[in-house]
Design brief:
Length: 525
């Protein structure tokens, strides 16, 4: 008979195989060129520093404060698998380099699922709950979609979960008055610095550590001064190695460690003033209403989790009846709300729905599941199993657009008119295929220009297309025939004049009677 542990191994193995395949056969997003450029600038700057004694190429770079720590993991995957990925997708070598990184992103997310499992078990001491909750987490279409290509927010989310687990096990050891090794403290220092090296906002996890300590002090009635006298060496070790690793993992700090202040200021008010379609309203990133976050959370969180959140007044006594569980639970709860309110009160620039606060989603997601579990274990097991099945169906129908997933509340609205659709443009792969098919079917020469986002060129160059222009250059086009594809935020613009529609790229939600159009391909004779 297969026990829960063996079942989790089987599930994880199948999940990783299928997930890697989906990742390497996905499109190329608008963000990936920029992330690769950031890495290449940093790499060139480091080489210049050791060769010439300066790294002006980085100091003069506009996006010098973008963290590149995750590239230390993703770049080896690019080097090892870019040829295989290029051949599999008919990509250029550079395109293969970009898509091969998807493997590292997905594996990192899968690893975070393991730590999500550990956290779930720590809070409930129930292996079956941990199995269901982590399966829901890994199959959650919104996160699974991002995990196939989002090389900034998914690694950040994943390491936030890993750091949360490691830090809470240290807090638990303090509660139980167990010895804590310096090696574990140094590990937490490195993981924290690595998180900050991905995105500077990772510094907020130190607030989460502080909240955990405050919760510990209150639950165990610890005298702060006495605690500091006994544990000051641990804090010293953590602080020293944290600053050391932050310095090493952020080359922009090498010439002046105080650049960390500039980094926080720059990234919190990032210059992109982008409009995100939110429940029918255009909400701009540099002037967001506080409702923005709650609207997106309401439509992005699974309904099973929203139900659980609403049950909190009915289950709080059960949850807080055990002290260790309370430390874990309250850390997640207070961290979610305190960080969310920091974003709101400091007016941080956020766009593309919740991607910049994606790391908060697993916290509130797990809180909702825990609440439902303590309300009624049998109801949780039944609903959890049904939602797993539902998520599998949704992932099948939405692929490769799971990252745009909305819960069933959104199905009572006109999704296309109220929410962003494929804002990262992964439709470019399928639209490029249709352009190639149309060109071959009509025996056309491939020196025709293709207007759209420039990222499709990685799928078209090896098919002998050589002219690529942006969609906003279409009005000035004088030479015809030409191809046009309209996706990303261009999808809501008017159609090209005097052109023939050759493909409408769509997907369909289950239990929703309308197809969602994410992009179109056109031929203009």
């Amino acid at each position: 008979m297969i026990n829960n542990k063996n079942l989790s191994y089987v599930f994880l193995f199948i999940y990783i195989i299928v997930g890697i395949y989906l990742s390497v056969t996905n499109g190329i997003t608008s963000d990936e060129y920029h992330q690769q450029l950031n890495w290449e600038i940093h790499k060139a700057a480091i080489i210049s520093l050791f060769k010439n004694g300066n790294y002006d190429v980085l100091l003069n770079y506009g996006d010098r404060y973008h963290g590149v720590a995750f590239n230390l993991i993703s770049q080896p995957f690019s080097i090892l698998f870019n040829k295989f990925v290029s051949n599999l997708n008919g990509l250029t070598t550079y395109g293969g380099l970009l898509v091969a990184k998807h493997i590292a992103i997905f594996l990192t997310f899968a690893l975070s699922g393991v730590f999500f499992y550990f956290l779930s078990y720590k809070i409930t001491n129930d292996l079956f709950f941990a199995l269901i909750s982590s399966s829901l987490y890994l199959l959650y279409p919104y996160l699974l979609g991002h995990a196939q290509f989002n090389e900034k927010d998914i690694p950040f989310l994943s390491f936030w979960i890993i750091n949360t687990y490691v830090s809470l096990t240290i807090i638990e050891s303090l509660f139980l008055e167990k010895k804590i090794s310096n090696s574990k403290i140094i590990l937490l220092s490195f993981l924290t610095a690595f998180l900050i090296g991905i995105r500077i906002v990772g510094i907020l996890i130190c607030l989460q550590y502080l909240l955990s300590l405050i919760i510990l002090f209150n639950i165990k009635n610890i005298d702060i001064y006495d605690f500091i006298k006994k544990k000051w060496k641990l804090f010293l070790v953590f602080t020293f190695f944290l600053f050391f690793f932050i310095y090493i993992l952020n080359p922009i700090f090498w010439h002046n460690p105080l650049e960390i202040i500039n980094s926080i200021k720059w990234m919190s008010r990032y210059f992109n003033d982008i409009c995100t379609l939110t429940l029918g309203s255009c909400m701009r990133s540099l002037n967001l209403p506080s409702s923005y976050y709650f609207i997106w959370l309401f439509f992005k969180l699974p309904i099973i989790s929203i139900i659980g959140i609403c049950l909190f007044p009915l289950v709080e006594k059960k949850i807080f009846s055990e002290k260790t569980r309370s430390i874990y639970y309250l850390t997640l709860l207070f961290s979610f709300f305190s960080i969310l309110f920091i974003f709101i009160l400091t007016d941080v620039a956020v766009y593309d729905e919740l991607r910049h606060v994606l790391f908060l989603v697993p916290m509130i997601f797990l809180i909702g599941l825990i609440n439902l579990y303590y309300f009624n274990r049998k109801i949780f097991n039944i609903l959890g199993s049904l939602v797993i099945f539902f998520f599998i169906i949704e992932n099948f129908f939405l692929n490769p657009y799971q990252y745009t997933w909305l819960n069933s509340f959104a199905k009572f609205t006109d999704i296309e008119k109220n929410f962003e659709i494929d804002y990262w443009g992964v439709s470019n792969k399928n639209l490029s295929k249709k352009i190639i098919e149309y060109s071959n079917k009509n025996s056309m020469t491939n020196n025709i220009c293709v207007y759209g986002d420039i990222y499709a060129k990685e799928f078209l160059t090896d098919k002998n297309f050589s002219c690529f222009k942006r969609y906003n250059q279409l009005d000035a086009a004088k030479i015809k025939p030409l191809f046009v594809y309209k996706n990303m935020r261009q999808v809501k613009r008017s159609n090209p004049k005097d052109c023939k529609l050759i493909w409408d790229e769509t997907y369909k939600y289950s239990f929703y009677n309308k197809k969602i159009s994410v992009g179109t391909a056109w031929f203009c004779p």
